[in-house]
Design goal:
- There is one protein chain.
- The protein has about 350 residues and is an alpha/beta fold.
- The protein is built from twelve helices and twelve strands.
- The protein has helices spanning about 5-10, 15-25, 35-45, 55-60, 75-90, 105-115, 135-140, 165-175, 195-210, 225-235, 250-260, 295-310; strands at about 65-70, 95-100, 120-125, 145-150, 160, 185, 220, 245, 270-275, 290-295, 320-325, 325-330.
- Strands 2-1-3-4-5-11 form a six-stranded parallel β-sheet, sandwiched between helices.
- Helix 1 packs across helix 2, helix 1 crosses helix 3 (about 35-45) and helix 8 runs parallel beside helix 9.
- The longest helix has 16 residues, at about 75-90.
- The radius of gyration is 26 Å and the shape is elongated.
- About 40% of the residues are buried.
């Protein structure tokens, strides 16, 4: 049978209210003496008392839990963000609950509703990015929300993102500087915040260097490895294949590499390759991959700290933090093969 406050009160010879105040660290506030405090704590330890955190949370209307909505837990990038959020949240006294949406809006809406019903205090979301009504409803109900990696410009909530436009533009300019003009981009889910900005950076780089945009070189539909594999196969089968590929995620890059290997093509002698997300595997491949690095450590940590600040009432207004990316030059980009040089 669970030990109650009444049991502790009987053993310590004090009232239940005194026990409650001592255990909730309010002894000084109610001027409870050191001797009484010592008797209460001693009785609680002797009886091996463990507080019912669920009941306490219901009473205080808080559970000390943070929810994370993530689009694809198999992605090394998203998995790393979870780890950083969880480590930071734990250090601040919060437990983390993770829900994976598989990039589907239906699952995302369901998970948000489950989080609300289970009284999760606040939410960090990496949304699918097509609709935001369920997040607006969450926020309007008074639950703090921080958007991470992907956001909605129309929502006045805190967010942590990177400068996807600048990072993408730098990647494409790096390829152009090596003489490439037929550059394929393999996207994740079109229309989401990150992918829209990365595509915009790709187009801007082409325009600034007088390279016509070719819609046949803009492909892709999600962040999975299968997407990178399939789209690379199709691009390589074209009458005029690209001389360089820009993969906008780590898993897309893996798929592209698999397709290139099956076609007997080498990076960078046959096709140059650059990736967004500097995955852990990038430096250790036979041909280390040039990448746009995102500050993953800062992204997860800042999102957790922003949310906890709002939970504690330390932040009254929303804040968007935009972090810069970094081009990491390795060996996967070279001049186009002789037949493709202009």
């Amino acid at each position: 049978m669970a030990v109650t406050l009444n049991d502790i009160a009987d053993l310590a010879g004090v009232s239940v209210s005194t026990v409650s105040r001592v255990l909730n660290k309010k002894a000084d506030e109610y001027r409870i003496g050191a001797d009484t405090r010592s008797r209460v704590l001693g009785a609680a330890e002797e009886l091996n008392y463990r507080p019912n955190q669920i009941a306490r949370g219901l009473r205080l209307n808080e559970t000390n839990t943070i929810g994370i909505i993530i689009p694809d837990i198999s992605s090394p990038f998203f998995a790393y963000l979870i780890r950083r959020v969880q480590n930071t949240a734990h250090s601040l006294g919060y437990t983390v609950v993770v829900c994976n949406t598989d990039e589907t809006l239906e699952q995302e809406i369901e998970h948000v509703n489950v989080m609300y019903r289970n009284r999760v205090d606040g939410l960090i979301a990496m949304p699918v990015g097509k609709e935001y009504g369920h997040y607006a409803e969450w926020y309007e109900r008074g639950r703090p929300l921080v958007l991470l990696d992907r956001c909605f410009d129309v929502m006045d909530v805190s967010s942590v993102v990177v400068d996807n436009f600048a990072g993408s533009k730098e990647a494409v300019e790096h390829l152009i500087a090596h003489g490439h003009r037929r550059i394929g981009i393999i996207q994740g889910l079109p229309g989401t915040y990150a992918e829209t900005e990365r595509l915009r950076g790709y187009v801007a780089a082409l325009e600034e260097h007088g390279i016509p945009e070719d819609s046949a070189l803009v492909v892709g539909g999600d962040v999975r490895e299968e997407n990178g594999y399939m789209e690379t196969k199709l691009l390589l089968a074209a009458d005029e294949r690209p001389t360089a590929l820009f993969a906008t995620s780590d898993l897309i890059t893996l798929g592209a590499l698999k397709a290139l290997a099956e076609e007997g093509l080498s990076v960078p002698s046959d096709v140059s390759l650059i990736m967004f997300d500097d995955a852990d595997f990038a430096p250790y491949l036979t041909c280390p991959i040039t990448a746009i690095r995102q500050p993953k450590e800062l992204m997860g940590e800042m999102a957790a700290k922003l949310l906890v600040e709002e939970l504690k009432g330390e932040r009254k207004s929303s804040k968007r933090i935009v972090l810069t990316t970094q081009l990491i030059v390795r060996d996967s980009v070279a001049s186009p093969p002789p037949l493709h040089r202009e």
